[in-house]
Amino acid sequence: xxxxxxxxxxxxxxxxxxxxxxxxxxxxxxxxxxxxxxxxxxxxxxxxxxxxxxxxxxxxxxxxxxxxxxxxxxxxxxxxxxxxxxxxxxxxxxxxxxxxxxxxxxxxxxxxxxxxxxxxxxxxxxxxxxxxxxxxxxxxxxxxxxxxxxxxxxxxxxxxxxxxxxxxxxxxxxxxxxxxxxxxxxxxxxxxxxxxxxxxxxxxxxxxxxxxxxxxxxxxxxxxxxxxxxxxxxxxxxxxxxxxxxxxxxxxxxxxxxxxxxxxxxxxxxxxxxxxxxxxxxxxxxxxxxxxxxxxxxxxxxxxxxxxxxxxxx
Length: 314
What we know:
This protein is an alpha+beta fold. The chain folds into three domains: 1-69, Arc Repressor Mutant, subunit A (Orthogonal Bundle), CATH 1.10.10; 87-159 and 272-314, 3-Layer(aba) Sandwich (D-Maltodextrin-Binding Protein, domain 2), CATH 3.40.190.10; 162-270, D-Maltodextrin-Binding Protein, domain 2 (3-Layer(aba) Sandwich). The protein has helices spanning 2-16, 19-26, 30-44, 60-81, 100-105, 111-117, 171-177, 229-237, 247-256, 285-297, and strands spanning 49-51, 56-58, 92-98, 121-127, 141-144, 153-157, 162-169, 192-195, 204-208, 211-215, 221-224, 243-246, 260-262, 269-271, 274-278, 307-308. The strands form five sheets. Strands 4-3-5-15-6-16 form a six-stranded mixed sheet. Strands 7, 12, 13 and 14 form a four-stranded antiparallel sheet that branches. Strands 1-2 form a two-stranded antiparallel ribbon. β9 (204-208) and β10 (211-215) form a beta hairpin. α1 (2-16) crosses α3 and α1 (2-16) crosses α4. The longest helix is centred in the N-terminal third of the chain and has 22 residues, at 60-81. The two termini are 34 Å apart. Residues 305-314 have low confidence and may be disordered.
């Protein structure tokens, strides 16, 4: 069991890229995580992690061990979860990997009711824009918008089935620079652009009456989608330029009058998010309870039939 505990610590540290992050997520201290990995390395006689002041990454031996042990630990957790079937109510931990937009706009409307019904379940939410292997990274399920998923994944609707992107600017900006009437007018405006952690600046897509328009606006601010999203919205509200983001995210600013809609007939509608998880016969009790809760408690407009994903995602 000591070996199992130390292996679990190693997987957590490797997955989170550091001792502090792993310790915070697992409710312990960084020093305990470090001691566990050090014990494991001593028993195995090899170094498993490269440690620097800025990052922690697996060595070649660590990467090979991680590749084999992460799925095995998942099976151990599943085996231990069998005891949940003998309890009056499910208990344990539910780990979710979700986009920032889901963490902000969807889960706050779901989790309070879920946790009130299942107080012995602890939900751990990691907001992440990367496309990851949720199983290999130690999550029970993930949420994504529109990506194709692994063939053995089941996707269940979570949140509104249609969401819109909204373009907006502050009243002061519109008074100073004018209101765009066509998406291509944005090329003459200051816009707050987006990029993920890696990759190019994202284009903006619009649609109206069957016509689609893609523009690559310019601007002095580029925000990393996720952690810097609130910064970008606040900047737009203070007159920095035009922003294009989920309408629900901007709604409080519309209501307060600090942002006003622009190009509203062109706002793009997209399919809402899906909760996805491995399509195996046995599900951990916390995940099974969460899926059942979503299906039974979601508003009618949030519901549609679960589907199996067709293609492989990155």
